Every structure is written in C-alpha cells, then in structure tokens.
Amino acid sequence: MSQHGAGEREATSVWAYVPMAVIGIVLVAWVFATGYLRGAHQGAQTPVDPNVLPKDNKPAVNVRALAQPDEELLKELSREGKVLYEVNCASCHGKEGYGDGDKGVGLNPPVRNFHESNPAAWTNGKSFAALWKTLHEGANGSMSNYRHLPEDDRVAIVHYMSKWIPEQPELTEDDLASLPTGREAGAGTVAPMEAPEPPPVEIGVAMKLLLEERGTEPARSVQ
C-alpha cells in the first residue's frame, strides 16, 4: 500500500509542473512576437531626412557672418539684444553695464564693468570674439556659460553690450576663425529622431501575425 501511494504522489508531482511549463512557453512566445513586431514597426518608419530640423530646433547660426553685420542688421540685433540683456544679464551687470546689479554684489571676482577701459582687466578680452567666448564658456568661476540661449540671441547680446565698451578692438582673422559658421564641417547636423515605441500587442494577436508572416496556418481547436 505504501509503495502504491508513493507512486501516486510521484505522478502527481510531475503533472504539477505542466502548467508552469505552459506558462513559460507562452511568455517566451510573447516576448519573441513582441520583439518581432517592434522591429517590423520600426523598420516601416519613414526615413528621417537629416537635413530637416525638428520644429522645435533652430538651424545652426553663422556667428562669423553676424559678427560683422551691416548697419540695418546691427540695429535690429541691438534692439533684440537690449531685451535679452535686461532679462539675462542686468541683474548682475546692471542696466547700464556698470557691474552694479543687485545679484552681483559681493561676488568674487567682481562682476564685469563693461565700461572698463583697461584691457588687462578683461578675462578673455573685449573684442566680439572674446565676449562670445565668455558667453559660451563662462568666466572666473562666478559667471556660468550661456549655452542654453540660442546662438543668435547670444550674438544680439554681444552687439548690444559692445556700445559700452571703450576702444573695442576690431575683429582679426584669428577672431573670425574662432567663431562658429553654422553648417560647415557638419555643424548643425540633426540626428534622426527615434521611432516611437509601438503599442503593446495582445499575445493572441501577436502569435497570429507572427504565423501569418511565416506562412503558417494557426492551429485550430478540435470541436
């Protein structure tokens, strides 16, 4: 009797693993089918033209060209620069550029006074290219960079500030060579946007699509 009971228990224990095996097979099939469909979905996406910029991204700016604008463009840039300066710079540098803004009090080194005439007092110099570098990189540990602003906005700020700078030097060939030129040498290239994630697919639908792709008829249940 004891041997017979042990056999029953052994048989029962084997069959107890069957549901787990079925669940494992279904999960594997679901993962495979979902991955396959995701690949098929992404492969069907329309290729993205790398020369077309996303709507929320501006084309790269030719800063070198804007460093030497004609008189009409300079007036426009200066008007824009005034607004941008007052929003982004005046709190430290002061409304008139004397370095007397409320937020600049007590900073070490002191905030730049744009009316300073001594060239040695300027960290990077006071040419257009030097001011551009300061906005791009920051200076002295107390001024952060302004790379979060679009390039044309930074250009406008520099032109507006330049009206205060005494004896601002002319741009040299080296100065111009240091300025970005937009799309030259691959600048401004936009990486293709990633395809969106496909919506989740039910396991039954996924298996049907997978079998249709392989040309295999799905198994039919026996009535």
Percentage of residues assigned to helices: 40-55%
Strand content: under 5%
- The rounded distance between the terminal residues' Cα atoms is 41 Å
Continuous helix count: 9
Alpha-beta classification: mainly alpha
Low-confidence segments: 36-56, 184-197
Gyration radius from CA atoms, angstroms:
33 Å
Strand segment tally = 0
* Main pleated sheet: none
What sequence of helices (H) and strands (E) makes up the elements?
HHHHHHHHH
Give a short synopsis of this structure:
The protein has 223 residues and is an all-alpha fold.
Describe the structure.
With about 220 residues, the protein is mainly alpha-helical. Helix content is about 45%, strand content about 0%. The chain has 9 helices and no strands. The chain has helices at about 1-15, 20-45, 65, 70-90, 90-95, 130-135, 150-160, 175, 205-215. Helix 2 crosses helix 9 (about 205-215). The longest helix is centred in the first third of the chain and has 26 residues, at about 20-45. The radius of gyration is 33 Å and the shape is elongated. The relative contact order is 0.16. Residues about 35-55 and about 185-195 have low confidence and may be disordered.
